[in-house]
Amino acid sequence: MSSAPHPVVVIGAGPIGLATAAELARRDQEVIVLEQGEAPAAAVRQWGHVRLFSPWSEVTSPAAVALLEEAGWRQPEPTAYPTGADWLRDYLDPLAALLGQRVRTGHRVRGVARSDRDLLVDSGREAQPFVLHVERSDGSTERLLARAVVDCSGTWGVPNPLGSEGYPAAGETAAGERILYGMPDAVRDHDRFAGRATAVVGSGASALTALIALTSEPLHTDTSRVVWVVRRGTVGGAFGGGELDELPARGALGSRVRTAVEAGLIEPVTGFRVAGVERQGGSVTLLATDGRRIAELDQVVGATGFRPDLSFLSEVRLDLDPRLQAPADLAPGIDPNLHSCGSVQPHGHDVLAQPEGELYLAGMKSYGRAPSFLAMTGYEQVRSIAAALAGDHEAARAVELKLPDTGVCGGAGLFDEEASGDGGCCGTPQEPQSLTLTGTAGAAQ
Fold first, then answer.
1. pTM
2. Contact (CB, 8 A) for 284 and 175
């Protein structure tokens, strides 16, 4: 075991956090993973009904697979596309169980600092261990010392609001019980959405997937009304390239939404920037900055993306891009205006390290507000970080990431429909497929 006096602490027991622990465990480094949920990968459990847009071969960490196989685990069919529930049952839960007491659930990190130092103090800062202020689910608290911190907490817990300026629209918080920031589940949310009037706010893949769910059985009935609210002046670009799209799954999803629009199942409302949400009796009205109104809604689905929670890092020194809120050295390479998930260059510990020293942002958290993160990218990030923390600097520098030539933003299916391994980006999907939960599904919180 490592002779270091304190463990490495990983924040978040999602796919990337558990992979970090596997990498460190295989290098005989002491590690503790803190998960705020009552079970590992709590975020994935919230969208278990959605099928990932990457196959099994791209959503399992090599280090984790090695640990699991040593314990007799059998890897699922590499070309099959799991749902979130499959991912949990067949990989994440067994991995967390194997890591054992290293994973502590019901532990929410409220703050990270240098021991006995706030943000202002320079003297002796680097010689001090980190201290994590942790709140347990029973209400008790503790101070946990660490030699290094890897923040893999993701972004799922902080959805972007409906408001067009990045803040909640007037009345949005008060109407929260009528707003779902996520993906409708045909089973869990049946009574909430079936036959109802629903507005979907957003124009990305998650919005398109929600639109398909709401215009398909069992949520769609003769009394359903589905309104698609987008900020841009036209919905045309949101459909993707159809049959010419470089990612066939994205094109197929867009084509299916286009068909629903043309059939009158979806009412597009363009150039609508949400300024307010009004509750009127049993209905909801969306207000735009230009004065327009969308009235008589029962529910709203917010599919406007996610952002990182930086509140518990306020006493450590960060260097983040002011726009993406991602590590400054990484931001140019993940700018969504220039890059898709498959065009991001491999990167490791040196790009993700923060000025505080031995503090790293990894996984979806490292992408800030950029939506195109992939699990494969995160697994290589934490392999490099673990090597650096173990003192294997040669391995830490040897960052490699081999993505399929045509990218890995394919799709395997919509929600819990069965899908073959022939989908994805490298072949023509047999059924319309989706880039579901961009930044989460297949990307891994």
1. 0.87
2. yes
The Cα-based distances of 408 to 20, 212, 344, 372, 419 in angstroms read 22, 22, 11, 11, 16
Residue-level length of the chain:
445
Distance between CA atoms of 379 and 74, rounded to whole angstroms? 20
Identify any residues that bridge with 109 across adjacent strands, giving them in sequence order.
134
Beta bridge partners of 361: 151
Q: Give me the pLDDT at residue 251, please.
A: 56
Strands 107-114 and 130-136: antiparallel
Please write the tens of the pLDDT for every residue from 354-385.
Answer: 999 999 999 999 999 998 788 999 999 999 99
Question: Angle 404-408-413 (CA atoms, 0-180°, nearest 5)?
Answer: 135
Residue 123 one-letter amino acid = S
| C-alpha distances in Å from residue 10, one per residue of 36, 145, 314, 363, 384 | 12, 12, 17, 11, 15
Q: In what order do the strands lie in the sheet with 274-280?
A: 274-280, 283-288, 293-297
Confidence (pLDDT) at 429: 32
